[in-house]
Write a structure and sequence with these properties.
Layout (H helix, E strand, L loop, with lengths): L3 E7 L3 H12 L5 E4 L15 E2 L6 H21 L10 E5 L2 H17 L3 E4 L1 H7 L10 E5 L3 E2 L2 H14 L3 E3 L4 E6 L5 E5 L2 E10 L5 H6 L8 E10 L3 H4 L7 E4 L4 E6 L2 E6 L29 H14 L1 H4 L3 E11 L6 E4 L6 E5 L4 H18 L20 H13 L23 H6 L2 E6 L2 E7 L16 H13 L2 E4 L4 E6 L3 H8 L11 E7 L5 E11 L2 E6 L4 H11 L5 E4 L4 E7 L3 H5 L17 E6 L2 E6 L8 E7 L3 H12 L5 E2 L2 H10 L34 H10 L4 E7 L11 E4 L2 E12 L4 E8 L7 E5 L2 E7 L15
Parallel strand pairs: 1-2, 1-11, 2-8, 4-13, 11-18, 21-31
Antiparallel strand pairs: 3-7, 4-6, 5-6, 9-10, 10-11, 12-15, 12-16, 13-14, 14-15, 17-18, 19-20, 21-27, 22-25, 22-26, 23-24, 24-25, 27-30, 28-29, 29-30, 32-35, 32-37, 33-34, 33-36, 34-35, 36-37
Helix pairs in contact: 1-5, 1-10, 2-3, 2-5, 2-10, 13-18
Amino acid sequence: MQTHAKVVIIGGGMMGVGLLYHLAEAGWKDVLLIEKGELTSGSTWHAAGQCPSFIGNYNMAKIHHYGNTLYPKLEAMTGHPTGWHGCGGIRIATTQEEIDWFRHVAGFAPNVGFQMEIIGPDRIRELNPWLRLDGILAGAHTTLDGHVDPASACNSLAAGARALGATIMRRNRVTGVTRLASGEFRVETEQGDVICEHFVNAAGCYAREVGRWLGVDTPITNMEHQYLVTEPLAEFKDSPVELPVMRDPATAGYYRQEQKAGLVGIYEHRGAREAWASRGGLPDWSSENELFEGDLDRIAPWLEKALERMPIFANAGIKRIINGAIPHTPDGNPLVGPMPGVPNAWQCCGSSIGIAQGAGCGKFLAQWMVHGDAEINMASVDPRRFGAYADQDYTRAKSFDDYENMFETPLPGREVQAGRPRRITPLFDVLKTKGAVMTEVHGWERPKYFAPAGFAEKLRFRRTNTFDLVAAECRAVRERVGIMDLSSFAKFDVTGPGAEAMLDRLIANRLPGKLDGIGLTQVLSDNGRILGEWTITRLGPDRFYILTGAGAEEQARDDLALAAGPDVTIENVTDTFGMLVVAGPKARDVLKTLTETDLSNAAFRWLSAKEITLAGIPVRALRVTYVGELGWELHAPMADLARLYAAIWAAGEPHGIADFGVQAVNSLRMEKGYRGFGSELTNEITLIEADCARFFASDKGGFRGREATLAMRAKGISTSLVYGEIAATDCDIHGGEAVMQGDRVVGVCTSGAFGHATGKSLAFAYVQPGATLGLEVVILGERRALTLLDAPAWDPTNARQKA
């Protein structure tokens, strides 16, 4: 048996084999995949095999599209059939909100590369003459997708991987994985041990157990999913073309042609069942090609609706029922990327539609492993988007919701309440009582906006009934003073004699030189791509306080831990410190009554910090805000946060203090032209492309990503960030919308919002260099003029922050 490999992958389903193929294609030949049974014997073999282009997440659409371009040509490449049926697909809309979703997806389709058109009932009938059209308003018709035979497609990828030099070992169960002092991994199997540099958990339904070997609780829940196949239908025997795959929210599922028979799959809205629930949701190690007994009663209400839509199916007998296990994650996206806290260990699992996603996940994870970066934004699949809060109770609750709402239209602002709350501050109940509508980020509850009693948001892609509420919050910050609980920020204390040198090697900007100085900086990959954005405060000669976005907590922890030596101490103080933002032209007037510290501009300058006492509470006060106004971030012991809030509120009442939430923050930051990490600043982009050269201290010496960024600057860039105003009336940018110049697609929008103080709909976009005139953005099916601005729409000189 092979005893050493560069990479060992556990799991021979579509996700594992998809990665194996693309690692070998990228030039890593010394890769070993170990499967305890036969290839596809987990969830892959019994999957229905759909490969949709239509999906609401812009970057997930890229993953899907790659597979849909690979599968049709894979047989010619490997000599092994895939069973590809390029029949296309139609998703049905019965509401105007669903049609707007179609328009949104159609807006980013040109950037992704798939073909989509919104068609009416008459065209739907032409493509599916047996469909009842009652209540149907439109369809999203995608022509480049279809379905495959899952086992054939997986084995075709396996054949291609072997031909490229990769190795597959079947019938050999892995029994444990240990990380060695050398940083390598010992993979223990029934047939002996293998030492490897990189380890990949692609174990599908077993991924939780495999992750635990390395101390990681992988957030997946194995769910039962049923579909049925009918007896052959006479109508299909004489049909010269194959039906498109139909996706129908009203039936909570999909239906299509399967050879000359019908196939119907249901995601029941209630009563969903966890696979192997009697065993804690985990399969037995001896499980192979396992199916569960069919349960038509559980899916009957939705199956009846599907049969009403396709009456020819109702007249056919049921040939077989397939009820098998599929993994779901809390947000429905797969886990593709670094295993949290374990260098050179990777996840490639957790996909509930692994046939559609396996090839693309394999391609982009292979890029990440081989080259250090993927060409697409990986944030929505990075396993580190979850933290310790995502235990199995939380994961089950969220995964059940994801399964039961698989075919719901994901309207902007929908809040999934399952599993919540997880991470709260002492202000949670206080703010709820005051009308806070909460949103969740990395397990934290934080205010989205504040509403009067009895208010209910009407979710839609266009501006909603929260518009005036958010406008009032923005006006309070711009004209008076606002307060917000933003404790969700990830926070780290980095101390020790080696702290300065370590951070200097890790970040692209200079560290603040003065004690109490604050600096904004990015963390780069070796290729110069943006991995993170940190605010660093120097609290002492070898004492630093690091802040980053809530969703980046696990990634920042990994980056710091990997770079630290024995002379550096890193403490995650995210839960130790709460944080209140107090911002607005009256902020100083409010706070000066609560402290003996001089808050004047001369004594407490912009972009500086002091450890002060405020209302009798020790506070790290940072004079910086993300809203572009005079203000402070007040970092206080979490246990004292409610008392601090009450004192500030009382002091602020004479000045008209108001609560505000993250929707107001987004509006305010767009007016200031502040880039967002995860939208404008991602692993796809360099500082030069993001127009952030001022944060690139090329002359400070060696730091991660320096040489690659210099090379990029010398070579020239292929995309460039721009900022501008949209001629929009009732809708704003969500992200992903195509930027057009005449008939050419020249860019993509990344984020946007309506600026309530300026009265402008604002957006960021990446466009081809030189594309500055005659630009339009496609918003919900309409082209709107994009006028570029050469300065922030609000306070371009920062006079208000420096006041």
